[in-house]
Amino acid sequence: EAQVTQNPRYLITVTGKKLTVTCSQNMNHEYMSWYRQDPGLGLRQIYYSMNVEVTDKGDVPEGYKVSRKEKRNFPLILESPSPNQTSLYFCASSPRTGGSNQPQHFGDGTRLSIL
Amino acid sequence: GENVEQHPSTLSVQEGDSAVIKCTYSDSASNYFPWYKQELGKRPQLIIDIRSNVGEKKDQRIAVTLNKTAKHFSLHITETQPEDSAVYFCAASKGTNAGKSTFGDGTTLTVKP
Questions:
Q1: Any chain B CB within 8 A of the CB of A39?
Q2: pLDDT tier at B1 (50, 70, 90 boundaries)?
Q3: FRET label pair with B10: which of A22, A28, A85, B74, CA 20 to 30 Å apart?
Q4: Contact across the interface for A45 and B34, Cβ inside 8 Å
């Protein structure tokens, strides 16, 4: 089954304790992206990756890191989490057919609570 | 950068009525405009999209229109059903080799039986 898998689905942690949210897709998609969703603010893009070893900042990258060492994986790293990073996070992927944008396939989301 | 504004933020209709959600964008270089539906507790899923070389696209009860001159695009749902109740997001992005996607803040649609 074609899917984007995020882990963990839920996490409660404390300020300053490094954490990683993993994202994996099995559709051989070139493009992957991370978003955070907060009430009333829609989906805001954190980072995206056009292909392996190619990453770039979205609109809200502060406090986050990403890496793209393999095509299927795109982990989101919070080196020193703070309470304002409490949010619902979505990973997404899409093909780049002909180089143009295509619909994004989203994971089921990760709900992070930073105390 | 791109700015996408979505209206209304909430919309309540009677079953069988039509619903219209409108988005405006700021960057004239944007050329891909998807709409996603997010049911409560679920992930966003694409329902329809349109590219800038097309003015209108329809899929059964759902249609999207694009006005490039005015930089706005709209989602039209006809004959609404209770299962259409969800949050709807519009988005805008540029074309080739551009990775940024900007989403609207969402519209909560409630269809009353």
A1: no
A2: confident
A3: A85
A4: no
Confidence (pLDDT) at A99: 62
Report d(CA B102, CA A87) in Å as an integer. Answer: 18
pLDDT at site A98: 63
Identify all chain B residues contacting A41, using CB atoms and an 8 Å cutoff: 105
How far is B108 from B65, CA to CA, in rounded Å?
20
Distances (CA, A) of B53 to A17, A98, B95: 48, 16, 12
- Tokens representing B23 are 């988005």
Q: Which of A42, A49, A98 comes nearest B104 by C-beta?
A: A42
State the burial class of residue B40 (Cβ atoms within 10 Å of its Cβ: 0-12, 13-18, 19+).
Answer: exposed
| Interfacial A residues in 56-115 facing B (CB < 8 Å) | 56, 58-59, 90, 98-101, 103-104, 106-109
SS3 of A91, please? strand
What proportion of chain A, given as a percentage, has pLDDT over 90?
A: 85
pLDDT bracket for residue A10 (50, 70, 90)? very high
